[in-house]
Amino acid sequence: MKKIVLLFCVAFAFAFASCKSTTQETDNGAASLVDGQIEAEDDGSASGQVESAGQSESQDTLASVESSRQAAIDAGAKDMYGTAFAANDVALEALKALNDGKDHGKEYSELKARYDALAAAAKAKKLKERIDNEGLAKNAQADYDAGEKAIAEFDELVAVPVTPGQTLNKKATEAYNAYYAVYFKSYKKFALEERKNAVSKKKEADAVKAQIARKDEYKGCADLILKGDQQFSTSNPEGAYNSYKEAAANFDALAKDVAAKRAEAQKAIDEAKAKVAASNEYAAQADIEKPLGDEPVAGIEAEDTVLLEKDEFENPEEKIIKIDESVQGAN
User: Fold this and answer.
1) DSSP state of 298
2) Residue 261's pLDDT is what?
């Protein structure tokens, strides 16, 4: 009898979902923006593709279902797919209330797969919105079109009560992965372009000997390129793009500042040389008119007097930090 009640509750919950619209938008009529990017690492770098989870033949527990439910909430599924989410909750509460001492692993697996599907679909819609806002679709149009098709199919499937959770999860994952491909390819392209710019700005800094004039700042700029290379090699193209962009801006500012100060110094040197030349001309004329003879004169140094210690300059070429023209794994 309790088994019949459970099945009735589940069927009722899914039927309730089908009588409503397939999705619910947020109050402003659109899914919320992805915060920076889909998170996977502590520094905010982009995650890899979503993996389909919740196999129907597995024996999941209430704890695993609750975990998937919370993940779906965190992804925004409760707002974007409110009716389907509510139907899942009704079914879950009915299953928890059954308390017949039997193993309901398969039923829990079905609910877990549905929560996982809603989470993946919500992530897909957030990523799609970001792609649309940034105009990224043109960088991988085929992937974008595949994502559009998959998310539309998911919205149709989630409205049908008898659609298996694993089918929903597979379709939602397909949509997310297609949109993720657009995002990843776009930022990989942007990162490579920005790296070329950063290397170019570094060469400008090298040309004005910034590696000698401002060693610490110069090294900090070079380290940003190396940081970007590390991010690029670990499949974090957006992080790499941001590092390269910062490096380019910093190298540009450094090169311009050092060049300006060198120009000021050269101007002062030229002015000093002009004064010395004028003084020499005056002295030569005075020597003709009123020669001093060979006796030393107070205030005038001997011809071989050393006024300044000899400068020992570093070789600028030896201080240049070597950066490869291209980053490994760029192809």
Assistant:
1) T
2) 87
CB atoms within 10 A of CB 65: 25
pLDDT in tens, 143-186: 999 999 999 999 999 999 889 999 999 999 999 999 999 999 99
What predicted TM-score, i.e. pTM, was given to this entire model? Answer: 0.72
**What's the length of the chain?**
331
Residue 137 CA to its chain's centroid (Å):
17
* 208, 258 contact by CB (below 8 A): yes
CA-to-CA separations, 206 to 152, 183, 314, in angstroms, rounded? 53, 34, 14
Q: CA-to-CA distance for 49 and 34, rounded, in angstroms?
A: 15
Residue 139: name the closest of 184, 92, 186 by CA.
186
Is residue 173 within 8 Å of residue 220, measured between CB atoms?
no
Distance CA 13, CA 312 (A): 84
Q: What is the DSSP string of 167-214?
A: HHHHHHHHHHHHHHHHHHHHHHHHHHHHHHHHHHHHHHHHHTTHHHHT
At 324, is the pLDDT very low, low, confident or very high (cuts 50, 70, 90)? confident
**Sign of the CA dihedral 288, 291, 294, 296?**
negative
CA distance 175 to 200: 38
Q: How far is CA 203 from the centre of its chain?
A: 25
Q: Which of 189, 106, 176, 167 is nearest to 147 (CA)?
A: 176
Is a pLDDT exceeding 70 seen at residue 13?
no
Question: What is the residue whose two structure tokens read 């110069």?
Answer: 218
Tell me the DSSP string of 202-251: HHHHHHTTHHHHTHHHHHHHHHHHHHHHHHHHTT-HHHHHHHHHHHHHHH
Q: Please spell the DSSP secondary structure of 16-80, one letter per residue.
A: HHHTS-S----TTSSPPPPSSS-B-STT-PBP-PPPP---TTS---HHHHHHHHHHHHHHTHHHH
